[in-house]
Amino acid sequence: MSERYAPAPGRAEPVWPEDQRAGELPVEPRTWLELKRLFARAFSSSLHFAVASVGADGEPCLTPVGAVFLGEPGHAFYLELYAIGLGRRLDVDARVAILAVDSGRLLWFRSLLSGRFARVPAVRLRGLAAREPRAPTAAELARIARRLGAARFLPGGRVLWPNLDAAARLRVRDLEIHRIEPVHLGRMPVPRWR
Fold first, then answer.
1. Which of the listed residues 113, 126, 165, 185 has the most CB atoms within 10 Å of its CB?
2. Which domain holds residue 149?
């Protein structure tokens, strides 16, 4: 675990099962590319990801976040614009889980017809959040702007994201991914990650 993700004073030390130590993510570049494609389909069909965290009181909490981005294998970041409570919880306990679900009607209809999934329909990522949010890079700002697309220029978009170009106010938080778990749905076959 790098220093950047190490628990700060007063922050809970992550507890990992013996077989899933922090920092171990043996992932093939091809698998990470498939994961990125699943994330793109999940956002396209659901418009958000479910991000789980644990509060100071030990209670779990889910936060819908529209701006989660995968980077190099094992690394991601999210825009901390409206996810203020999520950031506060991550300040106390760095453990995080992200659920991405491809809710595309065609995938589900074909899967129900054939009795099997042609591709992984959902994935859960587990990892640690960085101690502090940071200013986004120019490349990350461009990715965020592409994600929002033309919606940011509509009346509602101008209300939600009025100062997207004012990078000084925006913050992103890095995530170090330690485990990738394809979600299995009962006995319906799901392809294996390569």
1. 126
2. 136-169
